[in-house]
Each structure stands twice: as structure tokens, then as C-alpha cells.
Amino acid sequence: MRSIRSHLTKVLCLSIGSLLVLVGIAIFFAARAVLFDQFDATLLAKGRALVTASEIDGGDFEVDMTVQDFAGFGAGGSEYFEICHPDGELVERSPSLKKSTARLLEIAVPDHFEPEIHPGKLADGTPVRVFVQKYTPKGDKKKRFQELHLVVASPVRNLQLNLIGLALVLAIAGAMAISLTIPMVRLVLKRGLSPLENLSSEVSGIAADDLTKRIGTAGLPKELEALATRLNATLAKLEESFGRERRFSSNAAHELRTPLAELKTLAELGATWPEEANPDRCAEMLTVIDELESLLEKLSLLARADAGSLPIQREPVSLRASILAVVDRFRRQAEQRELTFKTEIADEELSIDPVLWNAILGNLIGNAVHYTAVGGSIQMESTAKGFVIQNPAPDLTDQDLARLFDRFWRKDEARGTGEHSGLGLSIVNACVAVLGGTCKADLSPTGRFRVVISWNDQPR
Amino acid sequence: MRLLVVEDAPRLRANLGLALTKMGHAVDLAEDGPEGESMARMNPYEAIVLDRMLPGKDGLSVLRDLRRDGHTTPILLLTALDGIEEKVRGLGDGADDYLTKPFALAELVARLEALVRRRHGKADSKLRIGPLEIDTAGKSAARDGVAIFLTAREFSLLECLARRPGQVLSRAQIEQHLYAELDGPQSNAVDAAIYSLRRKISPEGTPPLIHTRRGLGYVMEAR
């Protein structure tokens, strides 16, 4: 697996190494240019000194010997010059060349009178810098030494040795720097990436079955703090989501287990004691089966709503007739509990799926009738834009509101009867969402519980 | 055995009570936590079947409060929650056993009997009083290897006496073990049941196993 640290180590070492090599080369060439400039400046000064020191004295050409000795042109010196006529006839040469009969070197002299410096080689192969200039010495009244060619050669071997020395120093220093770079880069990256590695090990330590863990953000650099905070938020969401799933599975199993236990006990009674296998017992079993069937239908409706496969067939539905029909279904139960209905229903039509609309109304009105205290009032308002139902719910708290739409949630955990499974509001929520509306619940300070359905986009 | 069933699901509660009664046990029923706790405190039950989720006060709270106050009656938690942590929690809070819904009646009864046996220090389901051998699991009794046919109520009385050999039990104590709260036995019901049981377990010519202590009650032992 690719590691950021080893990748960065490799890339940084290569980059720094390349940079060091380039810097070394740049230093070398810069130093070389400076040294050659200095060398040429010296050569130029010598050449000009020779031009200045040349004169015609009594018709003879002379070069001041002091200048020659000083500039290293004397016998045994390492600097050389030759002065000749334009036709090549030798006029003067430095004492350092006296023993040699060969010409200093063949080089073209410029047509103008400005000096020029070129690289060159002596006859014995010695590399030199060559100063060439066309000039006329002072005092040449008879015009015998017009436009003389001055060639000055200065060996560059020492300069080259110095440059080789510099190159060696740079190469050794570069190699040492590169060899030190690797451990330094490693150390810096180890320290620099340690918060990332700590974060990684913390994240690795979060087991899939334990989402309660969170990543510590104290001491994290700000770049990682944002990541850790985001991860923690994601973990919290996952935990909540898994918790809800777990609760749903557990509750679904729970809701099925109690009626199954009832069925099993009823069946065992009949099987063990034949006199108990009577019509009453069978009727009881049918009731349990009906309740189970109703529960499964609710679960199936929710599953289809979740999967987006709930068929919707909209048709015009009279608000008043549809709501009052459901109220009538619960009227007897409401009368037993001395509940009153207050309705304000607009005389409008709603384009809606009648089956889902009935499921919404049945669950909301059924819940209100079941949970409103004896003698209470249930209030409903409805237009084509929405539906509101409210009833007193003194036991409900603001904390309960957060879980109201959770599947199988009930205020009292005990689930003795199959009458209310705790799926009603989640079915309402799912049906409203499928129909393109929103469903909200709130609790007034006086303890009245209200469910508000808004149809966002009411198709006509 | 006299049992208490605390269960909020009405059909399950009634039918469980009926089945246990038909098996010869005296069964009291409670529909919520407070009622169940109050009955558990008032009556000497051999075992209690307690639902985990109850209205009013949940089963675990009832269990904890009973154990905190020193009640040692075996309690079997009955629940629809099957998670390991739920079981561990229930057992940790003082339940003696745990049964998940749906369950087989036979398993429930076997577990209750095992709990009661353990309470009386018995590892198996066999009780022996002299020549009499009683199998509390198989609900059978035999004297010198000869099977004795007993009604459920007679077997319950025999089991009640045999579990306490040499111990005098008053009529009131026997009533409490044999009859549920709502049974309301007649004044001579215990004497009549003792008479009937004596005839079956000690035929003429054999030494009696149930002895009367005048003014005190009855004791079972082989002399």
C-alpha cells in the first residue's frame, strides 16, 4: 500500500537532491564566470599596459622593460606577448618567449582598434586567454610601425586548477548535504505527519460495531481538526442512524414476538387440553392473527414508502367528506371517552391518493382519540394547502417530539395490547413525504400536541 | 406450586394462567408493575414469571426493588427483547432465569420447576420420602415402584408437603401454596385433599406418610 510518508520522503529527497545539484552547478558556473572576468580584466590591463609602454624612440620600437617585468613578461615569466606588423613581420616579443623560435599563436587580429579577448592554445597545447589589439605606438613619426598587431597570451592552467578545486568542494559538500537530507527529511516528515498518523490510528481503532467512540480533537493541527470534527459529526450521524435501525429491528421483533407468544400459548392450550380447543379460543387466535396482519401491512407500507415503490393514484377528494368519514370511524370510541371534535374544513377538493390520505387521517385521528385524556377536545383545520390536528397531551415532553416519528416509538415502553404499535406517526410521515408534503409536530406551552401537514406542491 | 404471572398482554396473561392452572399450579395474575410487585410482597409464591416491559413500573425495576428488599423468590424474566445485553442486564439485576417470547409452555414450566428445585437445594426432579418416589418434572408418583394416579391438585399438595419433609405445615400455609388468591377454597378443602391424598399414597396396611399434628397442621415423613 502506498504510504504518504515514504512517498513524500522519496519526492522531497529527490527534489532537494536535484535542487542541491542545480545550485552546485549554478555556483560553479557563476564562480567560473567571475574568475574568468577577473582573469580577462587582468589580461586586458596587461595588454593596455603594453600598448601604453610601446613607443618609437629614435626610430626604434621599444617596450618599457619595467612594465614587461612587472606584468610577468620577463625572462622566466609565464605571460607572453608578440607585436608584429600587419604582414606578420615580428616587431617585438616578450622575454619569456626568447628561447622559442615558434610564433606565439595564429590568431586573427580585429580590423578595429578596440582590444578583444579570446580563448586559445599555445603551440605546446597550453590553454590560454588571448588579448589581441591593433594599435600604433607613440612617437612613430616616420610611420614605420603603423597598425601593429599585439597578441598577449596568459595561461589559464592555474585558473582551471582553481575551478577543478571549486567543483570538487561543491561536489563533496553537495554529496554530504544530500546524504544528510534523507534522515532530516525523514525526521521532519515523521514529526510533521505524526498528528495524521495518530488520527489514522484513532480512526482505525473505531470498530464497525462500536460507533460510540469519537476522535480527540485537542492538540490537532487546524487542518486535521476540521477533518476530525467532520469525522466525529459523521460518526454521530452513523451512530444515530444505526441506533435507529437497531431499535427498529429490535422493536419489529418485539412487536411480532408478543402476538406469536400468544398464538403459541393458545395453540398449546388446545393441543394439550382438547376441551380448550373451542370456538372462543379459535376466535382469540384469529384476533391475534388479524393484529399481526395489520402490523405486517403497516411494515410493508413503510418498506414500500422507503423503497419509493408506493403506488400513487391521485384523484380529486373532497376534504370535508374524507375527514368526516374518518372522524365517524372513531366517533363511538370518542364518545366512550367523552371527547369532542372541533373541525374547520374548507369546502375544497384535494388532488391526492385516497388510500394514502385515509391512512394519514386514520392514524392521526386514531392517535388523537386514543391518547387524549377523557373529556378532552380534538381540533382539526384543513384546506387544500394543509391539515392541522391538535389535542391535549400533558404527558408529552419536548424530548419526546424528537422521537415521535421514530418507528415503534411509544411514550410507554410496555406494549401490552396490539392496538397501537407505535408506527402511526412514522406511516403518516412516510405517506406525506411520498405525496410531496411535509409533516411537523410541535407542543404548545399549554401542553397541546399539534401535527401540521403542508402540501408543498398541490397538483390540481 | 403457587405462581405469580406478571404480564401486561391480556391474552397472553390469561392463557398462560389457564395453562399453568391446568398443570396443577395455583396461579395469580397481575397486569402491571405496581400490582405485580405488591402481590409478590404479600404472598409466598414458589416462583414468579415477570414480563420485562410493563406499564406503570417496568419489570426490571420491580425485580430490583424486590431483591433490594430481600425477596428471594425465584423470578423468571419473560421478554420479547432477545439481545444478549438485555439478558445480562436482567440476570445481573437479580433474575434467576430468562425466557424469550415466543416460548413453549413446557419449557416455561420446566424452567420454573428447576428454579424451585434449586431453591430447595435439589439438583434433580426426584423427591423421595421413604418408599414414595415423586417426579416433579414428570408429575408422577410411585410407592415401592407402583404408580399412583393423582389429580393435579393432589399432586400439587403432595409436592408441597414432600418438598418440606419433617416440617409441619399449617392449613393456612398449605392453602397459600395450593390456591390462588381468587380460588377462595372452602373451609375444609385442605382436610379433604389431605384425606384423599393419604388414601392414595398409603393404601391399607402400609405405614402412613402424612401425619397430623393436632392444632398445628400436617407433616410428611417416613417413620
TrEMBL record, chain A:
It comes from Luteolibacter pohnpeiensis. Keywords: Kinase, Membrane, Phosphoprotein, Transferase, Transmembrane, Transmembrane helix, Two-component regulatory system. This is histidine kinase. CDD domains: HisKA. PROSITE patterns: HAMP (PS50885), HIS_KIN (PS50109). Coiled coil: none annotated. Residues 190-243 form the HAMP domain. It catalyses: ATP + protein L-histidine = ADP + protein N-phospho-L-histidine. It is an enzyme of class 2 (transferase). Residues 251-457 form the Histidine kinase domain. Pfam families: 2CSK_N (PF08521), HATPase_c (PF02518), HisKA (PF00512). One of its GO terms (molecular function) is phosphorelay sensor kinase activity. It comes from the Bacteria. Its main location: membrane. One of its GO terms (cellular component) is plasma membrane. InterPro entries: 2CSK_N, HAMP_dom, HATPase_C_sf, HATPase_dom, His_kinase_dom, HisK_dim/P_dom, HisK_dim/P_sf, TCS_sensor_his_kinase. It is found in: Membrane. The chain crosses the membrane at residues 12-35, 163-189. Its EC number is 2.7.13.3. It is a multi-pass membrane protein.
Automatic annotation (TrEMBL), chain B:
GO terms for molecular function: phosphorelay response regulator activity; transcription cis-regulatory region binding. Keywords: DNA-binding, Phosphoprotein, Transcription, Transcription regulation, Two-component regulatory system. Residues 124-222 form the OmpR/PhoB-type domain. GO terms for biological process: regulation of DNA-templated transcription. The keyword Transcription applies. Gene3D superfamilies: 3.40.50.2300, 6.10.250.690, Winged helix-like DNA-binding domain superfamily/Winged helix DNA-binding domain. Residues 2-116 form the Response regulatory domain. Signal peptide: none annotated. GO terms for cellular component: cytosol; protein-DNA complex. PROSITE patterns: OMPR_PHOB, RESPONSE_REGULATORY. This is Response regulator transcription factor. It comes from Luteolibacter pohnpeiensis.
